[in-house]
Amino acid sequence: MSYLDEAALAVIRPIKRMVEDEFLTRPGVIGVDIGEKYTAGRPTGKAAIVVYVCAKGPQHPQQIPAEVGGVPTDVVAESIVLHRARITRASDEQPVVAERHPILRGGIGIGPARSFRVVPPEVEKAGEYVIAGTLGAFVITRTDPRKVLGLTTFHVGCVDDSWAVGDEFVHPSRVDGGVPGADEIAVLDRAALAGSVSAAGLKMGARPFRAEVVDVGAITGAAQATIGSTVRKRGRTTGLTYGVIVSTDATLRLDFGDGIGVRTLRDQIRVHSSERFGDHGDSGAVLVDADNRVVGLYVAGSGSTGFANPIEPVLRQLDVELLTRGVPESRRPEPAA
């Protein structure tokens, strides 16, 4: 796989930004990105504006011009969905990962204690549903460095428009057998859904925790995503997976469901893996580079392709900093009770 250099990206980015909103209004278009153009399944070595459609059909070559401003386009069929897990309360489905961690770390399953009424067409059958996602890492608030939050996505932390500060969260999630009250670990403290960010911060309770990610180790800080670099994520459903960053320019239209609707996330990180990179229940996991620095917050995917918020806007909008093992004593949280 070849990667586009910064010089090529600098030329294409303004053209892509100029046309992406108009492209996103066209039927079936769910995203606009920058990547290598493929023809008949083979890479051409040429940079292109990539247009994601939910189903590639004969109409798409007509509705998307072959080139824009001298830059070729490439229409790609993808089914990109938010990767939270949702099952009915009455489901007989067994937990995907029935993990219980007495010491909390990033990469573990969590979910709201409350259930959610969901109706068609969002689901096949109306009913009460419960949600599962991933606790990605721990952060501290910039206004009070002793206040520790667990980081996850908006669509795991808030789910719909009925959310409220103080909503209870459990580990394991109710999908995985967690019990409200007995398994409470945190309450919703803040959230953001705008620009390039779908994120939420959960105020941690008395359970002990470590500034680590399961199977990865201690978090060392934050860094900017770099095209061509290898990243790892540890999610509730797929566990530890590896991929390579192939873009930091993805713009996606994602359906957040009843009450929230379709929202556009810009400047998303796109990761490619030789295997499945993520699945339902992995939303909220952090992308970590070779130096254990967090570069992104995983939100959505499609098989071997994953998408994540860049971490810096997440931290900025939530007004937090990553908690690391190297945090000075004066900024460390008080010991858990």
From TrEMBL:
Keyword Disulfide bond annotated: yes
Keyword annotations from UniProtKB, A to Z = Disulfide bond, Hydrolase, Protease, Serine protease
InterPro entries from the xrefs?
Answer: Pept_S1A_streptogrisin, Peptidase_S1_PA, Peptidase_S1_PA_chymotrypsin
Which GO molecular function, any one, fits this protein according to its record? serine-type endopeptidase activity
A biological-process GO annotation: proteolysis
Q: Which family does it belong to?
A: Belongs to the peptidase S1 family.
Name of the protein: Peptidase S1 domain-containing protein
Biological source species: Lentzea aerocolonigenes
